[in-house]
């Protein structure tokens, strides 16, 4: 499978090699900094460094020299794993996980005195070992904030036999930390409404309006998905009252991190992992892409939703307006557009009891098509990848998002296609982020299909999207 054809053009990724989690997101003066888990040696996860890029608009990025590299013999000898950036009274400071084989994980710290370009590591890990009384599955990934003059840090973990957990620490100076107990222990046996995994990676914790939100990536021998918990935070404990998937594309939306920016928005990036075999990843020479920058919001139904920032609109080129029409049962209505880098906006009225389907990246004969289907009987939006690619080595499972349309509410879709990446936003309250690998050069079409009952296309607009490099 050709690597170049699958490479996104308007989403962030390094020039080559392996990328995973976004790290150290921070707005410093007029510049946004995005660090990321990076292997400069190839398109596989090993000996992880921190890559670095900067932007003035969250959309266009400049690659910067590598920020952190493993120090031979040091606490991070086998990897500088995920972490965050804070402003320590004017000094940019990174807190990250030093990783040593076979599986030692220790919190580490580095500071910059030249405007976030080069970093000096604190000579020792800032916490020597996890609390000895806990039987933990991991001790990694950091979010740090200040509360009444005291630094607070969460570390992702899991308590064997219990479930994912985040451990709370406090410090006067970012270098000396005291364990303050678990902020929250999950219950991995609990499937209702969502299974929360054995280990929580990459915790993020913030207030949004009058709600407190904990975001964690649920792991059990492999990444599963990202969960958002909404609840109350008091005396170092968090009590969630709602838990849901943050994005319904499962492992393709993982390890997100947020930053508050000066205009009041909270911006999130997530890592979208590949969904193809290691052989084709290594052959392509690159792996991993960031989602669009998204603003974190509370949707009208109370779930946390992440929506593309308005700055994304600057990438729109030549708008094509799609006339409204009624698609009769069993008809396929092709839109007058083609492309692999598109933003698509569709307002549809699905049948009251039935399904309506949008085929994306579809070949004229339909042998390749990614199928987005809304079923009003089950109130579910499905992204079906069974026919997304003729390649033999790609992930084909479907993603399902619960979505109830109220009364006469139409289905409002905003879809971003960028080579192998697809991001679907529905009614500003659900998102599905995934990876597709169409192989045919003519798999560029979009069609609306009515199944047993007619579907009204009320309005539509499509834009070709400009590249960001
Ligand atoms: N990726 C990092 C870990 C983190 C995981 C290692 C999540 O710190 O737990 O690259 O994708």
UniProtKB/TrEMBL annotation:
Protein family (similarity comment): Belongs to the glycosyl hydrolase 32 family.
GO MF annotations in UniProt: sucrose alpha-glucosidase activity
Alphabetical keyword list: Glycosidase, Hydrolase
Domain of life: Bacteria
Protein name: beta-fructofuranosidase
Enzyme Commission identifier(s): 3.2.1.26
Class in the EC hierarchy, top level: hydrolase
The keyword rRNA processing appears for this protein: no
Record-level GO BP terms: carbohydrate metabolic process
Protein's UniProt keywords contain Zinc-finger: no
SUPFAM superfamilies, per database record: Arabinanase/levansucrase/invertase (SSF75005), Concanavalin A-like lectins/glucanases (SSF49899)
Pfam family, one: Glyco_hydro_32C
SMART domains hit by this protein: Glyco_32
Domain annotation Glycosyl hydrolase family 32 N-terminal: ranges: 11-306
Gene3D superfamilies: Exo-inulinase, domain 1, Glycosyl hydrolase domain, family 43
Glycosyl hydrolase family 32 C-terminal domain segment(s): 312-463
């Amino acid at each position: 499978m050709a690597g170049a054809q699958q490479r996104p053009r308007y989403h962030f990724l390094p020039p080559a090699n392996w990328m995973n989690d976004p790290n150290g997101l921070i707005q410093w003066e007029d510049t946004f900094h995005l660090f990321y888990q990076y292997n400069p040696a190839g398109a596989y996860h090993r000996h992880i460094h921190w890559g670095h890029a900067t932007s003035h608009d969250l959309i266009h990025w400049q690659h910067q020299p590598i920020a952190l590299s493993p120090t031979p013999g040091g606490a991070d000898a086998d990897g500088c794993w995920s972490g965050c950036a804070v402003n320590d009274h004017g000094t940019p400071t990174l807190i990250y996980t030093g990783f040593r084989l076979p599986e030692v994980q220790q919190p580490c710290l580095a500071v910059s005195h030249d405007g976030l370009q080069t970093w000096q590591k604190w000579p020792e890990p800032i916490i020597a070992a996890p609390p000895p009384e806990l039987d933990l599955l991991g001790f990694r990934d950091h979010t740090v904030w200040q509360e009444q003059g005291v630094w607070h840090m969460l570390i992702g973990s899991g308590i064997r036999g219990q479930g994912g957990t985040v451990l709370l620490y406090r410090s006067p100076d970012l270098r000396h930390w005291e364990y303050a107990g678990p902020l929250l222990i999950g219950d991995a046996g609990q499937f209702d409404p969502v299974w929360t995994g054995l280990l929580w990676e990459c915790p993020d914790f913030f207030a949004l309006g009058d709600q407190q939100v904990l975001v964690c990536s649920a792991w059990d021998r492999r990444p599963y998905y990202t969960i958002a918990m909404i609840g109350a935070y008091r005396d170092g404990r968090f009590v969630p009252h709602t838990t849901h998937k943050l994005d319904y594309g499962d492992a393709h939306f993982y390890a997100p991190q947020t930053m508050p920016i000066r205009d009041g928005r909270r911006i999130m990036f997530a890592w979208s992992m590949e969904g193809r075999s290691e052989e084709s990843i290594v052959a392509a020479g690159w792996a991993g892409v960031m989602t669009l920058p998204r603003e974190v919001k509370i949707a009208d139904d109370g779930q946390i939703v992440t929506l593309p920032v308005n700055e994304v609109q600057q990438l729109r080129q030549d708008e094509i307006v799609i006339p409204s029409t009624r698609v009769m049962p069993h008809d396929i209505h092709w839109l007058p557009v083609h492309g692999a880098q598109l933003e698509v906006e569709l307002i549809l009225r699905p049948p009251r009891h039935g399904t309506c389907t949008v085929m994306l990246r579809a070949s004229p004969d339909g042998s390749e098509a990614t199928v987005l289907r809304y079923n009003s009987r089950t109130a579910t939006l499905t992204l079906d990848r069974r026919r997304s690619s003729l390649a033999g080595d790609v992930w084909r499972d479907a993603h399902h998002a619960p979505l109830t349309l109220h009364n006469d509410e139409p289905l409002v879709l905003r879809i971003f296609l960028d080579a192998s990446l697809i991001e679907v936003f529905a009614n500003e309250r659900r998102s599905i982020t995934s990876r597709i690998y169409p192989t045919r050069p003519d798999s560029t079409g979009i069609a609306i299909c009515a199944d047993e009952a007619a579907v009204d296309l009320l309005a539509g607009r499509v834009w070709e999207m400009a590249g960001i490099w």
